[in-house]
Amino acid sequence: MAYWLFQGNPKYYRIQDAIRDLDTMPWLVTRYASEIQAGDGVLVWIAGPEAGIYALAEIIAAPQVLTNIPDQNYWLIPGNQRADKPRAYLRFTRKLLGQPLRRHELKQDQVLKHLLVIKAPNSTNFRVTPEQWARIHHLKG
């Protein structure tokens, strides 16, 4: 089992609405497609001024290119969906919309301040260590 952080950008996608409305959803995979597997854990990160972890999830289907993008209505710019890229299906296990773990809080934590998304946020998919995963579950799991 591996652990990941998937980042969504509210400039392009209505991520808070998707988390609120959906139980499962496909997520764009730009890196690590051959390593992401069903059963892996995912931290769902929303970028921007209020950046942080807004949900916990589990991969339920390994990345694959989809012929139909079921969440296309959540994309703010039509055609920006990158339909040629693989997506992993995830199932939300805990939604933190009312009480996210925000970047400024995580930067104060001795374990979580080392999350790669805090140090170099310009990607979609990031590795998370077992120690970081355990710490998130201690705080919000």
3D structure, described in words:
With 141 residues, this protein is an alpha+beta fold. Helix content is 18%, strand content 32%. It has helices spanning 15-21, 103-106, 116-119, 130-140, and strands at 3-8, 24-28, 41-46, 52-64, 87-95, 101-102, 125-128. Strands 1, 2, 3, 4, 5, 6 and 7 form a seven-stranded mixed sheet that branches. The longest helix has 11 residues, at 130-140. The chain is globular, with a radius of gyration of 14 Å. It starts with a strand and ends with a helix.
Could you give a quick summary of the protein structure above?
The protein contains 4 helices and 7 strands; from the N terminus they run E-H-E-E-E-E-E-H-H-E-H. With about 140 residues, it is an alpha+beta fold.
Q: What is the tally of beta strands?
A: 7
Number of helices: 4
Largest sheet: 7 strands, mixed
> Helix/strand-derived class?
alpha+beta
Helix content: 10-25%
N→C terminal distance:
17 Å
Rg from alpha-carbon coordinates: 14 Å
Average pLDDT confidence is 94
Keywords:
single chain; 7 strands; alpha+beta
How does the SSE layout of this entry go?
Blueprint: E1 3-8, H1 15-21, E2 24-28, E3 41-46, E4 52-64, E5 87-95, E6 101-102, H2 103-106, H3 116-119, E7 125-128, H4 130-140
Parallel strand pairs: 1-3
Antiparallel strand pairs: 1-7, 2-5, 3-4, 4-5, 4-6
